[in-house]
Write the structure tokens for this entry.
Amino acid sequence: MDTLFPAPGDKAALEDGDRLTPRFGPDGLVTCVATDAATGEVLMLAHMNAEALAKSIETGIAHYWSRSRRELWRKGDTSGQVQTIVEMRVDCDQDAVWIRVRVGGDGNSCHTGRRSCFYRGVPLGADPAEGVVLRFDRADDA
């Protein structure tokens, strides 16, 4: 379904051109990072197929492709956590998207009930072979 967008051009067109020509992976997806428009906090990482990207652009509401459910997903349809897009950017080679959003409902973005899906810290300097113990951000705990 990526015929919704023109085919990517050469390196110069991708990096310096003025047309959105997303480079969808073999699975038909691009990665999308969503951050809070006001604070810059990383809220979630998800994936978009051509339809999700097109609907996000057309409506200003974040749409994603659920890899587990294998279906289009409008963020907030069941949770009320609608993500209104304030700004959308594409990376240098157009295979990743960054959206700055305002979150509706309770303001959370994670299906666990937390504001961000990135609620666990990984301590640096630990020996992975010994098992790394994650640090939970209790301020954001459900």
User: Anything to note?
Assistant: Residues 50-59 form the longest helix (10 residues). Strands lie at 30-36, 42-48, 63-66, 71-74, 83-90, 96-103, 120-121, 135-136.
